[in-house]
Design brief:
The chain is of the alpha/beta class. It has one domain (10-242): NAD(P)-binding Rossmann-like Domain (Rossmann fold). Helices cover 47% and strands 15% of the residues. The protein has 9 helices and 7 strands; from the N terminus they run E-H-E-H-E-H-E-H-E-H-H-E-H-H-H-E. Strand 2 (34-39), helix 2 (43-52) and strand 3 (59-62) form a beta-alpha-beta unit. It binds NADP nicotinamide-adenine-dinucleotide phosphate. NADP nicotinamide-adenine-dinucleotide phosphate is lined by residues 15-21, 39-42, 63-66, 91-94, 114, 141, 143, 186, 188-189, 191-193.
Length: 248
């Protein structure tokens, strides 16, 4: 694993309590960043992770991405505690799968309000802090599903495709202020979600992936670190696919 230095940088990760977000938090803290990360329902996991992080000044905060007031108050508190914000990782997201004809309005609203509107509001609040510093990098976790579509996930696919279009638009708005926005679109990544699959389901999925394996949270965390770092300083408005070749 190649290491990048984030010494002196403050980075916010949404949904850092478990899964991909927790790996991103660990990865950035290991490389010297001061990390703030949010949780929505598992303060126990967030507190446990916080205790294991190397370095000082890390913090965790409640934020419900489906609630604009929760976002506003959390962002104010987090930015005040950090003092400055150099990076943002829009990772938090959820699914409520159902074919469209049977989808409840509440599940449509929850997925769009959390994944799309919530991420937009977090980004807006973060940008205000980054504009003051005249620099910043924002990485948004989308999904291969937003690129290919998937039966039973039309709400989720729409939210993730929307985030890519959003990210490109804002990248154009703030490029002159030295702020970059990029997306990472993971394919199948081993998390609690994929733990629930049977061995046969995992074999079937792997067969469809050109690199013949399910990705790890570390694969995504390394890509996030790259797009946050100065090593990617000429890259903005792009999507990096971390999917084993599943979609090209
Ligand atoms: N795993 C995959 O294969 C895969 C593939 C493509 C894209 N992705 C994307 O990668 C991101 C992380 O996925 P994951 O598999 O690591 O998910 P996960 O294990 O389900 O973790 C989701 C994280 O988001 C937080 N969260 C959930 N609902 C929230 C809400 N309403 N407000 C604020 N935070 C909320 C959770 O906090 P609490 O634990 O406190 O509830 C948790 O930290 C998501 O955006 C997902 O769409 C994942």
């Amino acid at each position: 694993m190649s290491l990048l230095s984030f010494a002196g940088k403050s980075i916010l990760v949404t949904g850092g309590s478990r899964g991909i977000g927790a790996e991103v938090v660990r990865h950035l803290a290991n490389q010297g960043a001061r990390v703030a990360f949010t949780y929505s329902s598992r303060p126990d996991l967030a507190e446990a992770l916080l205790k294991t992080l190397p370095g000082e000044g890390h913090l965790t905060h409640l934020m419900n991405l489906s609630d604009p007031q929760s976002i506003e108050s959390s962002m104010k508190s987090i930015i005040k505690s950090l003092g400055s914000l150099n990076g943002l990782v829009n990772n938090a997201g959820l699914t409520r799968d159902q074919i469209l004809l049977l989808m409840k309005q509440e599940d449509l609203d929850l997925v769009l309000n959390t994944n799309l509107r919530g991420t937009i509001l977090v980004t807006k609040a973060a940008l205000k802090a980054m504009l003051k510093a005249q620099s910043g990098a924002i990485v948004t976790i989308t999904s291969v599903i937003g690129q290919t579509g998937h039966a039973g996930q039309s709400n989720y696919a729409a939210s993730k495709a929307g985030l890519e279009a959003f990210s490109k638009s804002v990248a154009l708005e703030v490029a002159s202020r030295n702020i970059r926005l990029n997306c990472i679109a993971p394919g199948f990544i081993a998390t609690e979600m994929t733990d629930a699959l049977t061995e046969q389901q995992k074999i079937d999925i792997q067969e469809k992936i050109p690199l013949k394996k399910i990705g790890s949270t570390v694969d995504v965390a390394q890509a996030v670190a790259y797009l946050l770092s100065e090593n990617s300083s000429y890259i903005t408005g792009q999507t990096l696919n971390v999917n084993g070749g599943l979609f090209m």
